[in-house]
Amino acid sequence: MNMQKLGAEFIGTAFLLIGVVGSGIMAQTLTDDTALALLANAIATGCTLYFIITILGPVSGAHFNPVVTLAFAIKGDHPWPLAVAYIPVQIIGAILGVWLCHVMFDLSVLQFSTTDRTGAHQWTSEIFATFGLLFVIMGGLRSNAAAVPTLVALYITGAYWFTSSTSFANPAVTIARMFSDTFAGINPAHVSGFILAQLVGLFVALAVLPLLFGPAKDGAD
């Protein structure tokens, strides 16, 4: 097993959650304006995605997301044994990233979110958000692979605002965020609904995107 690739996925996903949760905590600390807090959260997340994808893309492919890993594995562009190893590493990295945020902001490390995120509108949002993320990645790889870090960063920054769920689009992120009762949290009871919606978005993307882009390779693997 390639430990360099696994290490990159672990560190990258941890950085992603530090960006998501840490900026949410900071924003919530500095302002009572929810719109301003969401803007700060979105910008910080987009910035984090840009640097982790740019730096770690050549190492592991910069998935940081079980849905992305599954998409490439199902398409035959990523070996299944490595995909099976990527997913738990991504989840563990995400959770540890959340816990590190709590330490940095002097919060209780072990906590569970009480923020409700559920309902057909949010599930639909997660289906669309996940489809959109894969659209951006696969389309970017087909048209301009060097621009993928920028495209993903811009997409997620925007999707925070044009989706009702604020575009989790990532099972590892969803699982990790249930361990933070802060701005970015999600009630553990609602995690399964989000993940199911993300998987639906994955299979919609796998059905639709080849019609647009045809086969595309994950050049980092």
From TrEMBL:
<keyword id="KW-0472">Membrane</keyword>
<feature type="transmembrane region" description="Helical">
    <location>
        <begin position="120"/>
        <end position="138"/>
    </location>
</feature>
<keyword id="KW-0812">Transmembrane</keyword>
<keyword id="KW-0813">Transport</keyword>
<protein>
    <submittedName>
        <fullName>Aquaporin family protein</fullName>
    </submittedName>
</protein>
<feature type="transmembrane region" description="Helical">
    <location>
        <begin position="191"/>
        <end position="213"/>
    </location>
</feature>
<dbReference type="Pfam" id="PF00230">
    <property type="entry name" value="MIP"/>
</dbReference>
<dbReference type="InterPro" id="IPR000425">
    <property type="entry name" value="MIP"/>
</dbReference>
<feature type="transmembrane region" description="Helical">
    <location>
        <begin position="80"/>
        <end position="100"/>
    </location>
</feature>
<dbReference type="InterPro" id="IPR023271">
    <property type="entry name" value="Aquaporin-like"/>
</dbReference>
<dbReference type="InterPro" id="IPR034294">
    <property type="entry name" value="Aquaporin_transptr"/>
</dbReference>
<feature type="transmembrane region" description="Helical">
    <location>
        <begin position="37"/>
        <end position="59"/>
    </location>
</feature>
<comment type="similarity">
    <text>Belongs to the MIP/aquaporin (TC 1.A.8) family.</text>
</comment>
<keyword id="KW-1133">Transmembrane helix</keyword>
